[in-house]
Write a structure and sequence with these properties.
The N and C termini lie far apart (41 Å). This protein is mainly β. The protein contains no helices and 11 strands.
């Protein structure tokens, strides 16, 4: 069973930065791919970025501003989302996908 915890959201002004974290722990799990999705109010959940087998891909809307990375330590896999030059349209609930297991979602609000 995998236990996933997201952290790092909040309120930021346009042009600001935030880092989201998603940690997965448990016994007997293996994660080959991970990613981030987001869902804005009144919209469908959309894919943001993925990291699999050392390769990263990004949605056009975040390319050049967001960076996905990961860390493995002591049986815990953590994926990060560094978000820079944030725009009001980045406001959404962000979800991490750890090989098919989802985080609880975390709110990111970009507003002045």
């Amino acid at each position: 069973q995998v236990h996933i915890v997201e952290s790092g959201g909040g309120l930021v002004q346009p042009g600001g930065s935030l880092r989201l974290s998603c940690s997965a722990s448990g016994s007997g799990f293996s994660i080959s791919g991970m990613g981030w999705y987001r869902q804005a109010p009144g919209k469908h959940r959309e894919w943001v970025t993925s990291l699999a087998y050392g390769r990263t891909t990004y949605a056009d809307s975040v390319k050049g501003r967001f960076t996905i990375s990961k860390d493995n330590a002591m049986g815990t896999v953590t994926v990060y989302l560094d978000m820079n030059s944030l725009k009001p349209e980045d406001t959404a609930v962000y979800y991490c996908d750890m090989g098919g297991s989802w985080g609880q979602g975390i709110q990111v609000t970009v507003s002045s």
